[in-house]
Amino acid sequence: MKNITLNIITQEKELLKMDVELVSVPTVTGEITVLPNHIPLFTKLQTGELKYKKDGQYASVVILNGFLDVSPDSVVTVLTDTATLERDITVAQAEEARKKAEEAMKTKLDRRQTMIAEASLKKALLELNLARKRQSPGSNIPR
After folding, report:
1. What is the pTM of this model?
2. Structural domain boundaries of the chain?
3. Interval 59-83: pLDDT, tens
4. What is the Cα–Cα distance from 40 to 138, expressed in whole angstroms?
5. Exposed/middle/buried for residue 115 (C-beta within 10 Å: 0-12, 13-18, 19+)
6. What are phi and psi of 112, to 5 degrees?
7. What is the DSSP string of 86-100?
8. Which is it for the CA torsion 102, 44, 62, 80, positive or negative?
9. Percent of the chain clearing pLDDT 70 (strictly above)
10. Which CATH number is 4-86's, of 1.20.272.10, 2.60.40.420, 2.60.15.10, 3.40.190.10?
């Protein structure tokens, strides 16, 4: 079976590069799934959970906005402001990030600071949800 090369790049680094079976991403028009030999595509991503399947197992990455490029040769490139691998998320860290973002939103902020705090809160809530899902019984079930 042909694979897709998934490449996730953040502002700081290349976070992930590997061959996968499929990739599902949250776009501004809804979630799409990319399989091998997908038509070329360039689209805007929204904050959410990117899911990929490798060796029959699903894994996730929390992404904060960005762009998706699907090339004719089955290379999927995700350019995102920030991303966190599922394996790097803990409930305690996500809960702490949520609390910090909520506290930041309580203070008087200008418009830019408010948008940053809202984005941080959304990302923290996604990470918290993902960490809790992973801890629940039967977490190996594809999501």
Report:
1. 0.74
2. 4-86, 89-135
3. 999 998 899 999 999 999 999 988 8
4. 36
5. exposed
6. -65, -45
7. GGG--HHHHHHHHHH
8. negative
9. 92
10. 2.60.15.10
